[in-house]
Amino acid sequence: MTGANRREFLKLAAGAAPAVAVAAAAERRPNFIVLFADDMGYGDLACYGNPVIRTPNLDRMAAEGTRFTSFYSAAPVCTPSRVGLLTGRHPIRAGQANNTGPETKGGLPLSEILLPQALKQQGYRTMAIGKWHLGYQPKEYLPVSRGFDHWFGLPYSNDMIPPWVKTNVPLRLYRDAEPVEESPEQSNLTERYTEEAVKFIKASGGRPFFLYLPYTMPHLPVSASSRAGKSRAGVYGDVIETIDWSAGEILRTLKVLGLDSNTMVVFCSDNGPWHNLPERMLANGVEPWHTGTKGPLRGAKGTSYEGGQRVPGIWRWPGVIRAGEVSMDPASTLDLFPTIVRAAGAEMPGDRTYDGYDLLPMLRGAGKPPRNEIYYCVGRVLEGVREGPWKYRRARAGKAAAEAELFHLDQDPAEQYNLAGRYPEIAARLLERLRRFAGEIGAELAA
């Protein structure tokens, strides 16, 4: 090749390189990261109104993506909330409506298809890091038997040890299918999880990946490592700020590796704060004010008021999800399954009913919000339904008969004013909708 020909070849190659890169990028499947806090209050982040807890990384994630003000977990307690996120199905429909614990045999039915299993069909690398809480004995219920290539974390909640829970089973930290550490130091778990997450992302080698990081905290008992003492909100603030640091490290890693524009990151919580904690929890330094900030919402973890299921919800994917958006329309952790599966180019399994919606058209700005309803289940009892701004709730308080409650959540997000008597026709219509759905999924209704 002559010098002139060589120069011409290099010129043509240089011109073709961007086109080749664009074509290759178009063929690349996106990566997905789900950051899932435990018992985080609706008002724990600065971008959700907290006046003293500093969360610059999650605030920036919200500014670079879409922040939901009406985002809901699938249930107001730990296990069923995780069922909803990983299956896209209401926990009662999926067969696991209550929490598991150290003594539990079995867990989420093995017939359920989990999000990582759907993604494995598309060649995804998958890893779970953190609290599992969907069953751990026998081993068929562990994450590495449910679609995850690797797992590093705890099998259930960090309080399921004496003095808070009566059990002889020690809390163990697992790697894949084997326990590797007994009674791990809890104060540095968020840092250890973050190190594992960064390693997993760095090892992607160009293959698409799904990372599920359900943090152990701020579920009680809360503790923080050497980062402690930096928040004006005390140890609880330290825990939230450490989670924010973790999110920042993960986002920074994506940028350094050039994966930022090809990765969807979602941050949310499994349910609201544990303000109604039982007396047994007030031991070994646990204080009532270690339970976070519910913001303007009524109720708490384990209830069907807004404080039980309405949680922070932040979605970010540069160049795909609109930046700087604040959505007031309802969305749910149930929507992660169909949104992620379809964004990955996979097909939804056709042999079962799903309760989630694909949010991506709306998040892109190319479609209307697909969800108009939210259901509120506590265990196997269906206690409420939201339709647009209206919420109908029917739940028992102790031994008293269930009372009909109707709230206009746009005008009254704190659920202070019961309008059932003023708008009986709306209450009746939503009660009928509640009855129909209870029959569909096999739920009970409060009497």
How would you sum up this structure, described in words?
- The chain is α/β, with parallel strands linked by helices and 447 residues long.
- It has two domains: 29-371, Alkaline Phosphatase, subunit A (3-Layer(aba) Sandwich), CATH 3.40.720; 380-445, Arylsulfatase, C-terminal domain (2-Layer Sandwich).
- The chain is 28% helix and 19% strand.
- The chain is built from eleven helices and 16 strands.
- Strands 1, 2, 3, 4, 5, 6, 7, 8, 9, 10 and 11 form an eleven-stranded mixed beta sheet that branches. Strands 12, 13, 14, 15 and 16 form a five-stranded mixed beta sheet that branches.
- Strand 12 and strand 13 (381-387) form a beta hairpin.
- Helix 6 runs parallel beside helix 7.
- The protein is globular and about 60 Å long.
- Mean pLDDT is 92; it is low at 1-26.
Question: Any chance you could write out the topology, listing elements then pairs?
Answer:
Elements: H1 3-27, E1 31-37, H2 56-63, E2 66-72, H3 78-87, H4 91-94, H5 115-120, E3 125-129, E4 150-153, E5 172-175, E6 178-182, H6 189-202, E7 209-214, H7 234-256, E8 263-269, H8 306-309, E9 310-316, E10 325-327, E11 331-332, H9 336-343, H10 360-364, E12 373-378, E13 381-387, E14 390-395, E15 403-408, H11 424-441, E16 444-445
